[in-house]
Structure formats: structure tokens, C-alpha cells
Specification:
three-stranded mixed beta sheet; 46% helix; 331 residues; Rossmann fold; CBS-domain; 2 domains; alpha/beta; five-stranded parallel beta sheet
Length: 331
């Protein structure tokens, strides 16, 4: 082997970790398919019909994984939050309702802090779903539904630090969250609403969410005189006006530039001209259901600051201004 292709000791250790965790995930896939399909379906049914919130809990590394699972559930349409089991015993239990479902994570299944809340959870009537690596553990035996991550060994050479087990827990939690997301019919629009400040959410904002409504559209009929057209441009302060026909459909626009060109062309006869005679035809438009980022791209490509929003019958129903996109954080 060429010296340049020799794998260093550090890289080999890293590869060993990844290979161990990959094997754990492969084992989880097979186990879920062959042995746990019924319990997984029951877990999904219980979480899907939950009338309250999904309360995720765990200690240590399992707690960190639980916190991430709770965040994924909440952002994909399943109301959820994380709470440490020790805090439940010191006042936070008051946050729980009998309509909630608890998702408890413990690889050993014998975490003392979790075992202490089993009785009050049951007394309140909360359904308990556990993710554990020990089928005969106290937590598994006291769960309404138990899901297992049967990890042969951790990626840690001492077989002590939670690594392959936490990776498997996280993957199983993601499987629950995304399966629920699909079952709820969670859409891109729903995702945008739950991520209003994030980059992904902003990319999914639609034109209808940022456009100015119909009463703010500068608009004149195609037979409107020059003075009426000029007044509409001046009053709405967007530097243009739409021009509509007798059927209310868009036929063109008159911009500040069109006014200047008309003056040079008609001069002393300008005031006798109608909006139809000085307008520009085929202005750029967009649909209310298009993405706002698409509107931004059109504006940037054509170096314009406004787009007319049309309905399915080509009637103006709104305006998207560059300032609106700026306010929405898309610029």
C-alpha cells in the first residue's frame, strides 16, 4: 500500500466507531421489522391519538437524546416537550395532564429517577412508552408499550460510554417523529409555520403570506385618462399602476418610465391619451401560491421592485413589493 493511502491510527479508530454504530442501526432495522413491528404500530397509534402533549424524559446521555427527539416531534406537527425526571419530582409534575403520553428513554431500563415517577405517572392515567435496551427491566415491564434498542456493544472500546445505544435511540425517535408527521399529513406550509425564524421556514413562505391585499393595488381601467392614471400612480406611491379591462383582468401597467416615454412621444397631446395607449403590455406576474423566494428571484433577475399577484382568471388580487420580502427576512 502506498504511504499516502495508509490509514492513520486515529482515522482507523474513527472508522471503527462509525462501523460499530452502523451495525447497531442495521440490527435495529432488522429487529424492528421482525420482532417489534406490532409495538411500533401501537406506539404510533397511541401518539397519533394523543389529545395532550408528548412528554419526553430521560437522564444523562439518554436525556440529551430525548431533548432532541422532543424538538423533532414538536417541529413536525406533534406537540411535545422534554422534562428531566428529577424535576418531575420537584414540582414539574404539575405540568402533566392525563391526556398526555410519556416517552421515557433509558438504555438500562433501571434509571432511578425514572423509576420514581412510574407510580405517579400511572396514577394520573398517562400512557407510558419506553425506549430501552433491557426487555426485562423495571421501566420496560411497567410501560404500556416498550420499544427496544438491542445493542451488542458500544462504540466505546471500554464498552461504557453510551454511543451506539444513543445513536440507535435517536434513530428510533426520528422514526417515530417522521412516521407521525406523515400520518398527520404535515405539509411544507405547516413546516414553515413551525419554523418562522429559520432559514428552512423562510424558504417555504408563500406569496400570499407577504403580499399586499387588493385594496392596496394601484389600479385604473384601460379607458382611464392620463390625469386619472397619473393620480393613481402618485396616490399609491409604488411608481406604477395596473391597468385592467372591462372584465377586470390585467391588460398592462403604466410605470414612471412609461409616463416619460409617452411625454416624448405625444408631448402636447399627452393629456388626451388613455392608460391603454401609454401602458406596457405583459407585465411580470406571480401566483399567490408560489413561493416568496420565487418572487424574489424574479425581482432580482429583472431588477424590478414589485410583482403583481394574479388569481386563476388573471385578475389582480395583490402586490408583492421588495420591502415586503425584506420584512419577511428573505433578503
Amino acid at each position: 500500500m502506498s504511504p499516502s493511502l495508509t490509514i492513520s491510527k486515529n482515522l482507523q479508530e474513527a472508522l471503527n466507531v462509525l462501523n460499530t454504530e452502523e451495525e447497531a442501526l442495521k440490527d435495529l432495522i432488522l429487529d424492528l421489522e421482525k420482532n417489534q413491528s406490532r409495538n411500533f404500530e401501537l406506539a404510533i397509534e397511541t401518539l397519533l391519538t394523543c389529545k395532550g402533549r408528548i412528554v419526553v424524559t430521560g437522564v444523562g446521555k439518554s436525556g440529551h437524546i430525548g431533548s432532541k427527539i422532543a424538538a423533532t416531534l414538536a417541529s413536525t406537527g406533534s406537540p411535545a416537550f422534554f422534562v428531566h425526571p428529577a424535576e418531575l419530582g420537584h414540582g414539574d409534575f404539575g405540568m402533566l395532564k392525563n391526556k398526555d403520553v410519556m416517552l421515557a428513554l433509558s438504555f438500562s431500563g433501571e434509571t432511578e429517577e425514572l423509576k420514581k415517577v412510574l407510580v405517579p405517572v400511572k396514577r394520573l392515567g398517562i400512557k407510558l412508552i419506553s425506549i430501552t435496551g433491557n426487555e426485562s427491566s423495571t421501566i420496560a415491564q411497567n410501560s404500556d408499550i416498550a420499544l427496544f434498542v438491542r445493542v451488542k456493544k458500544e462504540a466505546c472500546p471500554l464498552n461504557l460510554a453510551p454511543t451506539a445505544s444513543t445513536t440507535s435511540m435517536l434513530a428510533l425517535g426520528d422514526s417515530l417523529a417522521i412516521t407521525l408527521m406523515q400520518a398527520r399529513g404535515f405539509t411544507e406550509e405547516d413546516f414553515a409555520k413551525s419554523h418562522p425564524g429559520g432559514t428552512l421556514g423562510k424558504k417555504l413562505i408563500k406569496v400570499k403570506d407577504v403580499m399586499r391585499e387588493e385594496n392596496e393595488i394601484p389600479m385604473v381601467n384601460e379607458d382611464a385618462g392620463f390625469i386619472r392614471t397619473l393620480e393613481e400612480i402618485n396616490n399609491k406611491k409604488l411608481g406604477f399602476t395596473t391597468v385592467i379591462g372591462l372584465d377586470k383582468r390585467l391588460v398592462g401597467v403604466v410605470t414612471d418610465g412609461d409616463i416619460r416615454r409617452a411625454y416624448l412621444k405625444f408631448k402636447n397631446d399627452l393629456q388626451s391619451k388613455s392608460s391603454k395607449e401609454i401602458m406596457s403590455k405583459n407585465p411580470k406576474t406571480i401566483s399567490r401560491d408560489d413561493l416568496a423566494v420565487s418572487a424574489l428571484k424574479i425581482m432580482e433577475d429583472l431588477r424590478i421592485s414589485d410583482l403583481i399577484v394574479l388569481d386563476s382568471s388573471s385578475k389582480p388580487i395583490g402586490i408583492v413589493d421588495l420591502k415586503d420580502l425584506l420584512k419577511a427576512g428573505l433578503i
